[in-house]
Amino acid sequence: MELWAIAMEEMANADTSCNLTLHSRIAQSNFYIPALIVDENDEINFVENFSCDDPDDPRLKQELTKMKASGVKPLELRTPYFTQYVYYKESRLLQMLSYFPLIQVFLVSAFILIGYWLFSSARKAEQNLVWVGMAKETAHQLGTPITAIMSWLETLKELPEDPELVRTTALEMENDVDKLKKIADRFSKIGSQPVLKQHPIDDTIRSVLSYFEKRVPSRIKLSFDAAGKELIARYNEHLLNWVLENLVRNALDAMDGEGEIAFKTYEKENKVYIELSDSGKGMLPNMHKRIFQPGFTTKKRGWGLGLSLAKRIMEQYHKGRISVKQSRPGKGTVFLLELPK
């Protein structure tokens, strides 16, 4: 605007012999900045870049009053005969840019608030899922021994007077009651740091198989291919039992009452490995990692927490791993568990 005022002043003072091409181009280059040229009596002589161009328009008088009140010093246009003053204000674009930091702060704040709300909602939904899922998982864990106890009770009612059969049935019922105690103990330890000890891995697997042998359908075969020597690993027996039982139950659900569940153990370097294979329905490759996510399930009923809990037990508590070694639709599934010696 200072250059514009100089150009206007030079054009007003120049004679006809001067070359005013540059001055004229500068004077005509103002397309955006609103300006008013007034005389010494505050009468508007020239209007630039206002919506109205009539110097007598009352709105321009109001604009002039506002520009004076803003404290901006006007530019002077001096000629031999009179002095004029140029009052101007920021262009509309510059006025809009002055609000841009406020808009940025508002948008960033909105993103933060929306992100916090989404995060809070996701956490609440996840907590609800975990609580409901834990209740479902408890029912799932309790289902096998309770069903078995009910079956033993029916057997006792129908047994002839055979002390040996009664004694055997009572022992199996005792095993199921002991299983209920173990389940209660497992859930009571959720959230606490488990105690890890050295255990023979084969004994743990045999205890799981021993429990399921008399509680699975007759057309399902359970087998165990043990390593040639005793393998010792560091783990919490109750929690590893929980993981293996979850895998066996999932395998039973996938086989529809017929097939084979096989355990295999071996060691490599400082690790002990457990393979659990079944001849069930199998799964697609894109599901191999998703099945360990909380809430993911392929069953019509269930909350998809069994395998996510198994992954937590193996990785966070035992510093081991659990993964799907191989699985194909119709060809069964092989899970691989890894534990430090």
Tally of separate helices:
9
Uncertain regions: pLDDT < 50 for 5+ in a row? none
Beta-strand portion reads 15-25%
Strand order of the largest sheet: 6-8-9-11-10
The CATH homologous superfamily of the largest domain is termed Histidine kinase-like ATPase, C-terminal domain
- What is the CATH C level class of the largest domain, in words? Alpha Beta
Q: Do you know the CATH topology of the largest domain?
A: Heat Shock Protein 90
Category from helices, strands and their pairing: alpha+beta
The coarse silhouette is rod-shaped
- The CATH architecture of the largest domain would be 2-Layer Sandwich
- How many strands? 11
- The percentage helix is 40-55%
Span between N and C termini? 82 Å
- Please indicate the count of domains: 3
What's the main sheet like?
A: 5 strands, mixed
Using only CA atoms, what is the Rg?
A: 42 Å
Instruction: Look at the structure and give the mean pLDDT.
Output: 82
Element string (H = helix, E = strand): HHEEHEEHHHEHEEHEEHEE
